Amino acid sequence: MSKKPNDVVITGIGIVSCHGVGREVHEALLNAAEAPQPVVDTERFAPYPVHPMPEIDWSSQIQRRGDQRQMENWQRLGVFTAGLALDDAGLKEDEESCSSMDMIVSAGGGERDISVDTLIVNEAATRNDRGLLLNEKLTTELRPTLFLAQLSNLLAGNISIVHKVTGSSKTFMGEESAGISAISTAFERIRAGQSTHALVGGAFNAERPDMHILYEGIQSLAQGEWRPLWSRNGPGGGIITGSASAFIVLESRQHAQARNATIYATIDSVEGDRGSRANGGLEKRLEEMANRSQVADGADLLIMSGASGSHDLRDRERRIISDKWSSAALRGYSGLTGHAMEAQFPTGVALAALALKTAAKPPRFDADHESEMNTPPTGALVTAVGFVHGEGLAALSGE
What is the predicted pLDDT for the residue at 32? Predict the structure, then answer.
């Protein structure tokens, strides 16, 4: 494919998962001879296993303690990872570039105050005037800043404050679809010449009982011990969540070359859709997106599947991939990082770009269902199938 000035290229990657902090850690995972051992906590939220957040020195990217204190964990994680991406792109200290940089974030709702929730539930069990009870607790138990902290666009706001990224800002909500929309919007803006550089990504804190209630509301969480992604047919619905964050710096090729930036990969297309999954609806939409992406099958194609682990959806996606790209190497990265909701798609795109840049032949994350990759990838396909709705696909190629 010929190179064009408005090609959308990745020039900075910030990533955090249960395996550690930063690009180098994840490059090592992708270039390892064998699949890494799972980093999973089966005790704190039993019976639900979780891929936990690693140890992080927040001060290395968020220097002011006051800034750290006023953020919830998912915000701290996102702001920290955004800083990693800016550092990696060589833009962290470039005030002019940061002041004109667009920012598009995928975010969920704020974190619950579990102690106050518990207090309200316990007292409500002994009172009939529950409306009055709620009003009492709203005025006496909740900190004044709680409602502000719940706003999803505060992740973008905190990135602006801490890292001085002050161009246009947009925040998407909507679980996995938010991550798809964030990358798709940045991609289309740059390709159309409406933007020259953008910071895009999301963050997810899986270590929250309220999130477990959300997932388990439709009996979707795996239970008991950890199992590889494609082999999860044991108790529960199959999803193991993971605390993770990924931010990427996207630029037009012309803008990147003008400042001699390192290019990890080119994004050739981004597709997203949603609708009913009944009567083959999911298969039809994925097939249409695959056709539009025009990604050819081959042994040098790496498919980074963002399958959540949900049994039925996982298996339906895998059948489509097998039919469409039978020679490609399939890797279900949720088995490596856990399912990261709003950050799921950005995480897959970041991992795919790292694999392309380092000519990695990622080890099999599930030896029983994934084949060896004997040829370094020249192209990558990243998928995301939401645990309730929303599908996405991104095609990447070498720089």
Answer: 96
- In this prediction, residues 79-91 reach a mean pLDDT of 98
The CA–CA distances, whole Å, from 188 to 5, 20, 199, 279 equal 14, 31, 14, 31
The pLDDT value recorded for residue 148 is: 53
Q: 312 exposed, middle or buried (CB, 10 Å; 0-12, 13-18, 19+)?
A: exposed
- Contacts with 246 (C-beta within 8 Å, 6 or more apart), sequence order: 13, 14, 15, 16, 81, 201, 202, 343, 346, 347, 349, 350
Q: Any idea what the Cα angle at residue 335 is, between residues 292 and 348, rounded to 5°?
A: 35
Question: Do 287 and 316 touch, CB atoms closer than 8 A?
Answer: no
- The number of helix segments (H) and strand segments (E) in the chain equals 15, 13
Tokens of residue 54, six digits: 């690693």
Angle at 186 between CA 258 and CA 208, to 5 degrees: 125
In sign, the C-alpha dihedral spanning 192, 198, 204, 210 is negative
Tokens representing 16 are: 């955090």
**DSSP conformation letters of 19-60:** TEESHHHHHHHHT-SSPPPP--B-STTTTS-EEPPPP--GGG
**What's the pLDDT band for 1 if we cut at 50, 70, 90?**
low
Q: Show the CA angle centred on residue 345, arms to residues 379 and 79, nearest 5°.
A: 120
Q: Are 396 and 353 in contact (CB under 8 A)?
A: yes
Whole-angstrom Cα distance, residue 250 to residue 223? 38
Triad 363, 365, 366: Cα angle to 5°:
125
Is pTM beyond 0.85? Reply is yes
Cross-strand bridge partners of residue 246: 15, 202
Do the Cβ atoms of 316 and 391 come closer than 8 Å? no
Higher-scoring residue by pLDDT: 399, 378: 378
Strand partners, 236: 222
CA atoms of 272 and 256, how far apart (whole Å): 26
Would you say residue 376 has pLDDT above 80?
A: yes
Q: What is the pLDDT of residue 387?
A: 94
Residue 242, SS3 per DSSP: strand
Q: What is the pairing mode between strands 391-397 and 265-273?
A: antiparallel
